[in-house]
Specification:
Elements: E1 2-5, H1 11-30, H2 34-57, E2 62-65, E3 69-74, E4 77-82, E5 86-92, E6 102-104, E7 107-114, E8 118-124, E9 131-136, E10 139-143, H3 148-159
Parallel strand pairs: 8-10
Antiparallel strand pairs: 1-2, 2-3, 3-4, 5-9, 6-7, 7-8, 9-10
Length: about 170
Amino acid sequence: MVSFRARDSVGRVSFAVTAAVGLSFVALGLGMPSTDGVIALVTGAAVSLIGLGGLLFWRTLRYDLTATDLVLRFGPLRARIPLADIRSIERRDLSPTLWASVRLPGLAFGTVRYVEVGKVTMFASSAATGILLIDAGGRRYGVTPQDEGAFVRALDGERSSHVNPTAPDGS
């Protein structure tokens, strides 16, 4: 198995700011009476947990290439793409729609809708620029490996031994 880290971005800063905003709501809630205080505390705690969780998991964003699969990882979440299903890989700049999923500056995770290509399952340290778009059996995945050249070479090398005879182009 070969592992590739995602390229650096401002994602850590986004999570730190999210955690700080959540903690400020917690502090605000502590000084407020009854229902308003409880709402601020609960909201602040939830936002803080998202920010702190993101900070903890940030360095786990990676792509593992095995003999049979490409595994995309972020914290406890994974997506497994059989190499035989991969039809193409291309580098693109994309335009997210307003209805995107988890998309902070420096991170795109989950299913995100893009103007040019529709739904993409993102495990990326960028929401729009320099995305490696992987087409695999009718699904699209977006990744941002730090060493893009080595990632593509390794993936192409493994894919060459997993040609899908049912694919129209033989890949």
